[in-house]
């Protein structure tokens, strides 16, 4: 596999392309949830214009009236080609994929295939809040295996959770977040192989949410697909272009199965494949096939913003603990030294007019923390930190 996610790009930084006035014309969740005097750095939307290949694909579809139902394997073929070039993963089998509406709905469908009502699903908190919400709504039981103090998977804690989960002979699944949201941790090949070995030992089925796979920003960091590691043949994974190319509003994702899990994926109801947007599939396919130069420009901008945030916090909010992640465009900030209570995001919203994601819904380890979205302009990040510092003076 390649050792560096990013590649040189001559494209201008898309994060510097739009003004605040232009962004406030948007009608999506990020820009319409709070009043206009609030700087929104919370939900995972990027402040970027779309990649030109995506715009062309969608525009051509509109011109043709090509707005029917999705069909075919073009998305999976584009992902397979991207995975081979980007991650050196040449074993993504198109025949073991299926389109699903989005990653989290795909997670639900995968969990339906390998668990039943009341069965346990292990997660690694602090972790993306919908892991709790969707699992609970599915009538499954969340079992926590918290990350270690280094914000990495604690294999000893995970093994204990696996052992507890299968006590009594029931079925269990492990919902793996890779790369990890909110910490930006990129799991290594050795870590993932150890996870696979534990899963086989205890009969736990792994479902990997790999939505942030294209968004590895730290130079030298490497994303490793779970299904590429030894022992992961019974695994299931979900991937999408939505995070890498800011396509959350164009619904589409892919479910992938290891060779031993092919029969499980084949049991997914046919109607699930009707849920993705056909236009979304076209957009995601164009992004993966022709949008890598744009992606690399964004990744460079995110890396610059992460380093900018580190400098700004050291200067203006030195009490905040920030361990820069290797992936995602999210920053996980430990605000406990500021003594702002369990929900510092609420304080910064009320006093500083900056919207950030509260750490509390991320589960164990989230209290006293917040998540900040780095996918914006350096000017917005600078102003946000200025407001946050003023809020605690």
Describe it.
This protein is an alpha/beta fold. It has helices at 20-23, 29-32, 52-64, 74-87, 103-114, 130-137, 155-166, 189-202, 242-245, 262-266, 278-290, 292-316, 344-352, 378-391, and strands spanning 39-40, 97-100, 120-123, 141-144, 173-177, 205-209, 236-239, 253-257, 321-322, 330-334, 354-355, 357-358, 369-373. Strands 2-8-7-6-5-3-4 form a seven-stranded mixed sheet, with helices on both faces. It has a four-stranded antiparallel sheet with strand order 9-10-13-12, with helices on one face. Strand 3 (120-123), helix 6 (130-137) and strand 4 form a beta-alpha-beta unit. The protein starts with 19 loop residues before the first helix and ends with a helix. The mean pLDDT is 96.
Question: Could you give the topology of this structure?
Answer:
Elements: H1 20-23, H2 29-32, E1 39-40, H3 52-64, H4 74-87, E2 97-100, H5 103-114, E3 120-123, H6 130-137, E4 141-144, H7 155-166, E5 173-177, H8 189-202, E6 205-209, E7 236-239, H9 242-245, E8 253-257, H10 262-266, H11 278-290, H12 292-316, E9 321-322, E10 330-334, H13 344-352, E11 354-355, E12 357-358, E13 369-373, H14 378-391
Parallel strand pairs: 1-11, 3-4, 3-5, 5-6, 6-7
Antiparallel strand pairs: 2-8, 7-8, 9-10, 10-13, 12-13
Briefly say what this structure is.
The protein is α/β, with parallel strands linked by helices. The protein is built from 14 helices and 13 strands.
Features:
393 residues, alpha/beta, 7-stranded mixed β-sheet, globular
